[in-house]
Structure formats: structure tokens, C-alpha cells
TrEMBL record:
Signal sequence residues: 1-26
The protein's name: Lipase
Active site residues of this protein: 179 (nucleophile), 347 (charge relay system), 376 (charge relay system)
Keyword field: Glycoprotein, Hydrolase, Lipid degradation, Lipid metabolism, Signal
GO molecular function: triacylglycerol lipase activity
InterPro entries documented for this protein: AB_hydrolase_1 (IPR000073), AB_hydrolase_fold (IPR029058), Lipase_euk (IPR025483)
């Protein structure tokens, strides 16, 4: 295995914490962006699906790209918004972005499959990804641009995206998340102003607790306090397309932790994705995130908590008025919110024990699908995902009775 390929695999793996790949070649991982089209132009329009781009602004000034996709046939047939199906919002994982839902062929990729079923598909992209558009005043070079974790993704990005879709469609929204996309969904659903606009949610590799993560490479990073080390080095943007970050990962491997199957040492063994497409995946993945976000995720692994960011006692007192960061209380998610979840027996990040902890705290009893041989990225990239996951998910959405006209 060449080093580039290995690094790429690594990046993929890491990104998969919420799902995505990595690349090491070409561009610097710094503040310069790859010359690019829009997500619509890059992956969606070429497959023949109508797609439009929106930019929305969060309360704290970030500019997020949002795409709206419909099926080619329904667009021809219907024409106006009034006749679109119910809105579905897709929330990608860590080190990924909205492209995650369009990486395979139209009959294998959730974004296209939902559009084919007549859904009004909205594609979220959180701050820091290539499909988001910066900040009203902070340049990406500024460390304050990267001063956030998934807490802000939940309370600002998800909140604003849902508000916006709700204001355009006048409808409650179906939410689909993968990995970090489920962390921010759970956190957002504890907020009454957000959850009242949500019709139901389908969560792939659902995560709220992380203290049973079994991925050896992740555990090693946690143990070595890589998250704190990076922050103390003054690195605020985390981008595995950059050489130093890729080197850092490789430096963690040794005889006890081989890098030959780095993807598996981060995500668990994936059964079903197409290895010949890795190069293509790496053209998109991974996207950047913040070092503070990694630090927050590692706090969850160390403490077994699902709480706001822990600044340490003194600063917590200033931020929260308490020594300990406040919890996101899963029992506040309304019992009336229909939930569907799918998890995998080989998923080293969304562990079965942690999921049971989540289920115990939720007031409702979600519909649950278990796929014994699925690892963390199979939920996005499996060649059988449509039969295994997307068809049952769509049956669940349709059973909720929003499809009277379809
Ligand atoms: C796997 O990926 C390769 C390269 O993109 C493609 O030619 C092949 O059709 C894919 N296989 C399946 C089963 O989709």
C-alpha cells in the first residue's frame, strides 16, 4: 500500500467519525480552498437532478451553503413548490459535508433515492466545510473562526437550517443524520423551539454517548491527548488534507497498532463499500472541522457525558454559571417525535452499549434496525444501503402519513 493511499484511507477513516474520507495529495490543508463549483454543479446536476443553492446566516455570523434537490421526473411533472413532497433535511457526519449523500450512483445514494421518492431534499453543510461560505466578518485564518464545537453546530447551524426550511416550505421537516449529524440532531431536539419544527427523524449510527468507542486508533489519540496537544500547538482548524495532520496520524501507528487497515481501526470493519471508488471519495473528503470540536468529542469519550463543552471549572463558571458544563438532557426530546435508528454490529464508533444508554434516556421507543456486519461508513457508502436501510427508512417516513397526495 503506497503512503498516499494509506493516508487517504486514514483520512477517510477519521472523517468517518461522522463519515468521510481524506486525501493527502494536492492542496494544502490550510485556509485556501480548492477551486470549486457548487455542490449542485459538482455532484447533483450532472446526475440529472434539479438542484438549487441557498446561503443562510447563523446567529453567530456563519454563512452556510444549503442545497435543495428534487427528482427530475417530479420537477417536470409538478413544477411548483406547492406540489413538492415533504421536506427532508440531511445532516452529514464529522469531516464530511453534504456531498456525503451523493457519493455513489443515484440508486445507491440516499440523497438521490429520497428525491426519487418525491421528497423535497435539503442538504445541510455545517460551518468549516467546503460547501459553507465563511463568516460575515471573521476570515478563516482567524482562530476565532474555528472557535466552536458540535454544540454550536446543534444550537446555531441546525437551528438556522431548520428555521429556514420551515419558513420556505411551511412544513415540519424530516431529519436524517449520520454520526456527528446524529449528535447535533439529538442536542438540537432537546431544544423546544427547534424540535417543534421537526416531523420525525431517522438516525444512522446514532451517537449521544461515546464512552464505549472501541476504535483502537481513536482510543490511542484520546489516551495521548492529541486533541489538547493540537490546541496547545495553536492549531485551530483540523484538516486532514494537510500534510502535517496526515503525518500526525501516521505517527500514531506502530507494531501494536498497524496502519495497514487504518480505516477499520477508526470506523470498525466495513462490510460493503466499493473499494474501487476510494479515489473518487477522496476528491470530496475529508472536509475540515475545528480542533475544539475534536476536543469536545474526546471529552465525551473520556467522561461518558453528553454535555456542553467543558472549559475547565473556572471558565465553566463564567460561561455556564456552574463548575460543570450543562448536560443535553435526552429526556427532553418529546415522546411524540417519531424516531427511527439504524446501527451496526461492527461500528467501532457508535457502540451498541452507548446506543442502549441513549435509548434508555429517550422518552419514546424508537424503531430500530440492526445490521450485524455494518461498520461506521457502510451507513453512507454500502452498496446495499438502499435495500438494507434507505427503503425501510422511507417506509417509516411514509407511514407517518404525510404523503396523502403521492
Ligand atoms: C465500484 O466502483 C467502480 C469505480 O467507480 C465502478 O466502476 C463499479 O461499477 C462500482 N461497483 C458497483 C457494484 O457499484
Amino acid at each position: 500500500m503506497g503512503i498516499e493511499r494509506l493516508l487517504a484511507t486514514l483520512a477517510i477513516t477519521l472523517s468517518i467519525l461522522s463519515g468521510n474520507g481524506n486525501t493527502v495529495h494536492s492542496f494544502d490543508g490550510g485556509t485556501h480552498q480548492k477551486p470549486q463549483h457548487s455542490l449542485c454543479e459538482e455532484l447533483i446536476l450532472p446526475s440529472g437532478y434539479p438542484c438549487s443553492e441557498y446561503t443562510i446566516q447563523t446567529k453567530d455570523g456563519f454563512l452556510l451553503g444549503l442545497q435543495r434537490v428534487s427528482s427530475s421526473s417530479s420537477a417536470l411533472r409538478l413544477g411548483h413548490d406547492a406540489e413538492r413532497g415533504p421536506p427532508v433535511l440531511l445532516l452529514h457526519g464529522l469531516f464530511m459535508a453534504g456531498d456525503a449523500w451523493f457519493l455513489n450512483t443515484p440508486d445507491q445514494s440516499l440523497g438521490f433515492v429520497l428525491a426519487d421518492h418525491g421528497f423535497d431534499v435539503w442538504v445541510g453543510n455545517v460551518r468549516g466545510t467546503r460547501w459553507s461560505h465563511g463568516h460575515v466578518s471573521l476570515p478563516e485564518k482567524n482562530k476565532q473562526f474555528w472557535d466552536w464545537s458540535w454544540q454550536e453546530l446543534a444550537l446555531y447551524d441546525v437551528a438556522e437550517i431548520i428555521n429556514y426550511i420551515n419558513s420556505i416550505t411551511n412544513s415540519k421537516i424530516f431529519v436524517v443524520g449520520h454520526s456527528q449529524g446524529t449528535i447535533i440532531s439529538f442536542a438540537a431536539f432537546t431544544q423546544p423551539e427547534i424540535v417543534k419544527k421537526v416531523a420525525a427523524a431517522a438516525l444512522l449510527s446514532p451517537i449521544s454517548y461515546l464512552d464505549h468507542v472501541s476504535a483502537p486508533l481513536v482510543l490511542r489519540m484520546v489516551k495521548m491527548h492529541i486533541d489538547k496537544m493540537i490546541l496547545s500547538m495553536g492549531v485551530h482548524q483540523l484538516n486532514f488534507k494537510s500534510e502535517w495532520a496526515a503525518n500526525l496520524l501516521v505517527s500514531l501507528c506502530d507494531t501494536r497498532l498497524s496502519c495497514n487497515d487504518m480505516l477499520s481501526s477508526i470506523t470498525g470493519k466495513n462490510c460493503c463499500f466499493n473499494e474501487s471508488r476510494v479515489e473518487f471519495y477522496l476528491e470530496q473528503e475529508p472536509h475540515a472541522s475545528s480542533s475544539k470540536n475534536l476536543n469536545h468529542l474526546f471529552q465525551m469519550i473520556r467522561k461518558g457525558s453528553f454535555s456542553k463543552y467543558d472549559y475547565g471549572k473556572l471558565k465553566n463558571l463564567i460561561e455556564y454559571g456552574k463548575f460543570k458544563p450543562p448536560k443535553f438532557d435526552l429526556s427532553r426530546i418529546p415522546k411524540s417525535l417519531p424516531l427511527w435508528m439504524a446501527y451496526g454490529g461492527n461500528d467501532a464508533l457508535a457502540d451498541v452499549t452507548d446506543l442502549q444508554h441513549t435509548l434508555k434516556e429517550l422518552p419514546s421507543t424508537p424503531e430500530v434496525v440492526y445490521l450485524e456486519n455494518y461498520g461506521h461508513i457502510d451507513f453512507i457508502l454500502s452498496l446495499q444501503a438502499k435495500q438494507d436501510l434507505y427503503d425501510p427508512m422511507i417506509r417509516f417516513f411514509k407511514s407517518l402519513g404525510k404523503f396523502t397526495s403521492m
